[in-house]
Amino acid sequence: MSSAKQHIPEAVDQAEPRTGGTGSLVLGIGAVAAIGCPFLPEALPPLVRFLPLYFVLPVGICAIVRGLPDLWRARRSGVPGPVRARIGVLLGSLAALAPLVWLLLYVRVG
Asked: Which residues does the annotated region (Disordered) include (predicted)?
């Protein structure tokens, strides 16, 4: 061993795990996929085809809530925003707006 000081890397802050928006992306994809469940074959039971529609709005909102802090954290630190968080927020927004648009059209037409 040499008497020179060895460089010891600083401890990385482990208190706050950085997902980079993966959770938001998974929730957004799940919410958008649930919108397509009524278009599954009619041979499937109605429970499989229509039950996921009840989860579109809550899962879409969860995708937005899960992705926005990652985007805000990236903006504060000055690094480019995580693409997965951005896409998750976008898909969550689309999934949250789709039932509201359908409800508005139903009220106006009917």
From this structure: 1-20
Measured CA to CA, the distance from residue 4 to residue 81 in angstroms comes to 40
* CB distance 35 to 91 below 8 Å: no
Tens-place pLDDT, residues 45-87: 999 999 999 999 999 999 999 999 999 998 888 877 789 999 9
Tell me the pTM.
0.77
* C-alpha to C-alpha distance for 19 and 61, rounded to whole angstroms: 18
Q: Report whether pLDDT(15) > 90.
A: no
| Residue 107, both tokens | 């009220």
Structure tokens at 48: 């499989």
User: Which one, of 68, 82, 64, 81, lies nearest residue 27 by Cα?
Assistant: 64
- At residue 30, φ and ψ (nearest 5 deg) are -65, -40
Q: Which residues of 58-72 are buried (b: 16+ CB within 10 A; e: fewer)?
A: ebbbbbbebbbebbe
Q: Where are the domains of the chain?
A: 22-109
Question: What Rg value do the Cα atoms of the chain yield, rounded?
Answer: 21
